[in-house]
């Protein structure tokens, strides 16, 4: 009922009312004074007449009842009903949560009618987005998400300047967008949550999280981490499987459940193709592999919607180009080239010096011969690319015609085509000062990788200590120690054990066995100290116990540099058991992959998950660089998205306006599944700058059914912070009747005279008639 106050309009009549009341009460007392001790009936008669006199005296001062109430139709009240699939779960015995809700939302309900009398009622349903509806006659409960946070935020913005008396939220509280769209409940109108379902756990096995990590570990470059929770399933075993895109099983394992504990499983996988690949991780009760199919028996779980998740693996970005520069033919180049010849993502280009440049002595050549006599007899006398007398003789190992015809690149456009450079046993004098500076910019500005291998012309022995390249190496070249004169053996440091690309075996015991069986090395460029910020990943130790750095790495600008100070790694391959897999080749593949793994490309695409209103979206941010790797603002960037149903959607991009060379476009997924996007960037003249394939997954159901129990804690917090309160579903009528007594934005005052009510007249007549009848009945005077 409404709260009200009583005021007295005829205050001037107070003395008369009091005086007359006193006189009348004294007269009544006087008339009953001799008979009060005789019977209780006389006391009742006295009380009835006195009550009538007091009521009439009160009417003399004109009592008025006044209060406030919501002005009809001036305040908004919002009713929001959850339309997500989680309401198909069991609520009470024999009913789902959705059936409970539908029964309360039928037309003609008393609580709804009362709301419409006092407020302007707005109705909404919420799943992945907010939907206004005219009535709640039919709610399918088929939404794939519960965007409660985004929907409440959208309602706040939509009715920011309008009087909203409150929001009645009917849901199980399992919001799927709290992480992506944090909710500030204190800025909302009062929210009155009605919790559907209970906090009791239902039988369920779910994949709570699937995470993919990629490394340069050759045996298993992709690791899929799966977190599993099992509730109310007893001690039944679980079956975890990984399926490829073709539906074929890649791996399976059986695990035991542990009550109250999250299970973690790790799968090591080597994709059989490059590019974007999707895997499906599935979990379920052992023996229920076919659950969910038409002919399978009913599952013991409450739902199977959270039993699988997609995992996206990106093995694209290539082909990566690696430039190998060597001062003389050696076995390292042979094994390095052999190790990556089957890697579709790495293209090795070699520049090997066959002979150093030598002064021109005319008596050594023939009349009219300009080129080096080493090329005589090959039938290519007129080849302008052949080295002359005073030039080094170079061998080019490449699949592109005309590549490196001028020797080592002399411009940024030539060098920036590569992702990494390997320098092997070659002195600094082979390069010009401009080329040395270009190499430094290649690492620091372009973000490339640089690896220097040990040898007689490497590091300090090659006079690199006073060059720009020496500055970016992770070791001090002017602080070299005595050269190793004895056999040394390789071992990993603590930091090295933590780097998958440094290890060759998948387990620690196997790696220790491998290190113990490695041959001794005889060539080492000795270094005493490393630079700040550098990490020693491997060391060599002599028989006498002397320890020297063997593999040192560091970040330099946008790129990275590494120093491998051992000069005869080829011994590792020669000492392998006959028929065994070459550990050296595997190590080379992983090292090259590490060198190029984070190198920027001419076209780089970042996938960001965003929220457009209450709808989740995907933003593709594309960075475009020209041949000199400067941001390119006049490019044309297009994106083609392949949806789960096989349709292609063409998207146009626009410049971000904030970052040079960055282009943005947004895509709103309409269905769950795996998505692929191919982004193509073209220059102003129409030539293609580059392209990139990306992928992402949309799995709203996995979040919707992440927890099957109602989230009472979230709803209570929402109610408390917004100034509302929790409401029970069965007490909606009572709740609505109390709304006028709460704080309402727009109210009106009401007043009516107490003395002008028929009830007052009836009360006085009842008292006087009752007193008269009682006296007649008892025979009183």
TrEMBL record:
<keyword id="KW-1133">Transmembrane helix</keyword>
<keyword id="KW-0812">Transmembrane</keyword>
<dbReference type="Pfam" id="PF07090">
    <property type="entry name" value="GATase1_like"/>
</dbReference>
<dbReference type="InterPro" id="IPR029062">
    <property type="entry name" value="Class_I_gatase-like"/>
</dbReference>
<keyword id="KW-0472">Membrane</keyword>
<feature type="transmembrane region" description="Helical">
    <location>
        <begin position="44"/>
        <end position="65"/>
    </location>
</feature>
<feature type="transmembrane region" description="Helical">
    <location>
        <begin position="12"/>
        <end position="32"/>
    </location>
</feature>
<feature type="domain" description="Putative glutamine amidotransferase">
    <location>
        <begin position="406"/>
        <end position="595"/>
    </location>
</feature>
<dbReference type="InterPro" id="IPR010768">
    <property type="entry name" value="GATase1-like"/>
</dbReference>
<protein>
    <recommendedName>
        <fullName>Putative glutamine amidotransferase domain-containing protein</fullName>
    </recommendedName>
</protein>
